[in-house]
């Protein structure tokens, strides 16, 4: 379809930019609090709020403090949180990931009792729980795919049993969605959706997260399982595989540097699509704003709007609560 609108001066685009009311009337893309998901980092304790140095305003929180943060965000209109867990002990089997009374499982139960209308999404990965910091079982210096699937499925099932509304595997092991879907369906959780980190790239933008989740790998890197930043067509194949395996929502991570992929995934598949505005994106905005170089509110909102414009339906952002407040102003 042609977008040609006629010769000057018959068509003057500035006519519809003349006032805030006109601009709102013809606005093509909208942000709302209902599109936001707030990531939260849970660790054991009470009244614990340990700020992440690289992420001002983001904390490791005890379950009671998670409840307080989640309740405040929900009151502002944020419908969902995404939980990450930091265990007291790590081992080579990621035992804390699927423990019945693990930190995520405890926190899910508390949130579902106290805030039943809040959507609780749980990140399913093993890096926080493995003593070596990798997302899978390690043998001979290699990250093994298939032995990891059983642990991922066991972890996902433990989250569902605790009451999680959505399971979100982020490990990037081949076949993980099938393994998790099979485990959930086989134990009466066929209605529990999976939000797959379908196109998750090995990105330098994750740096601050590794401090927050205490999940930096003790050797090597994650390039043997997370995606190469250069590969867009491979990302579409990854998304297609996860959909075929049973994913209900697909995600592109990171978001801002991968807007082309968000657009292609949404256009190609039409599935509910999430964009994860990752720790590095958040930290850069915070750092520049602290120095007076940018307007934090304006840049944050513009960045999220760009993700929406690219095709994202769901925006996962550490700024979710403050964004929801700004949108109310």
Overview of the molecule:
This protein has a single domain, classed as Aldolase class I (TIM Barrel). It has helices at 20-25, 63-75, 95-98, 103-114, 146-162, 176-186, 207-213, 232-245, 259-269, 279-290, 296-310, 320-328; strands at 36-43, 49-51, 59-61, 80-86, 119-124, 137-139, 142-144, 166-169, 195-200, 249-253, 273-277, 314-317. The protein is 40% helix and 17% strand. The model has no long low-confidence stretch (mean pLDDT 95). The strands form two sheets. Strands 1, 2, 3, 4, 5, 8, 9, 10, 11 and 12 form a ten-stranded mixed sheet that branches. Strands 6-7 form a two-stranded antiparallel sheet. It is α/β, with parallel strands linked by helices. It starts with 19 loop residues before the first helix and ends with a helix.
Q: Which CATH architecture?
A: Alpha-Beta Barrel
- Gyration radius (Cα, Å) is 20 Å
Principal-axes geometry comes out as globular
Biggest β-sheet, characterized?
A: 10 strands, mixed
User: Which parts are unreliable, with pLDDT below 50 for 5 consecutive residues or more?
Assistant: none
Structural class: alpha/beta
Q: CATH topology, which one?
A: TIM Barrel
Count all strands and give the number. Answer: 12
Q: First CA to last CA: what distance?
A: 38 Å
Helix and strand pattern: HEEEHEHHEEEHEHEHHEHEHHEH
CATH C-level label: Alpha Beta
Strand content of the residues, in percent? 15-25%
What is the H level of CATH, i.e. the homologous superfamily? Aldolase class I
What is the count of DSSP helices, taking H or I runs of 4+ residues?
12
Average of per-residue pLDDT values: 95
Count of separate structural domains: 1
């Amino acid at each position: 379809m042609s977008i040609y609108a006629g010769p000057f001066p018959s068509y003057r685009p500035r006519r519809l930019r003349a006032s805030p009311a006109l601009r709102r009337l013809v606005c093509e893309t909208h942000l709302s609090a209902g599109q936001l998901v707030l990531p939260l980092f849970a660790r054991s304790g009470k009244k614990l709020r340990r700020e992440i140095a690289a992420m001002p305003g983001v904390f490791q929180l005890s379950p009671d403090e998670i409840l307080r943060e989640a309740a405040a965000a929900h009151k502002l209109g944020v419908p969902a949180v995404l939980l990450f867990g930091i265990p007291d002990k790590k081992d080579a089997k990621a035992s804390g990931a699927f423990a019945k009374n693990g930190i995520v499982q405890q926190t899910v139960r508390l949130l579902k009792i106290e805030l039943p209308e809040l959507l609780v999404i749980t990140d399913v990965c093993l890096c926080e729980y493995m003593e070596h910091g990798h997302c899978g079982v390690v043998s001979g210096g290699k990250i093994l795919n298939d032995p990891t699937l059983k642990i991922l499925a066991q972890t996902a099932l433990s989250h569902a049993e605790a009451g999680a509304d959505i399971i979100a595997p982020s490990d990037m092991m081949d076949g993980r969605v099938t393994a998790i879907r099979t485990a959930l369906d086989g134990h009466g959780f066929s209605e529990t959706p999976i939000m797959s980190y379908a196109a998750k790239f090995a990105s330098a933008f994750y740096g601050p997260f590794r401090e927050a989740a205490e999940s930096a790998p003790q050797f090597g890197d994650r390039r043997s399982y997370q995606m190469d930043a250069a590969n867009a067509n491979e990302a579409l194949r990854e998304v297609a595989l996860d959909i075929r395996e049973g994913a209900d929502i697909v995600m592109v991570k990171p978001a801002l540097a991968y807007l082309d992929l968000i657009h292609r995934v949404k256009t190609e598949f039409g599935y509910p699509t999430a964009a994860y505005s990752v720790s590095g994106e958040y930290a850069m905005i915070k750092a520049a704003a602290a120095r007076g170089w940018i307007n934090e509110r304006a840049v944050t909102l513009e960045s999220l709007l760009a993700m929406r414009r690219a095709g994202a339906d769901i925006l996962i952002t550490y700024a979710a609560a403050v964004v929801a407040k700004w949108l109310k102003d």
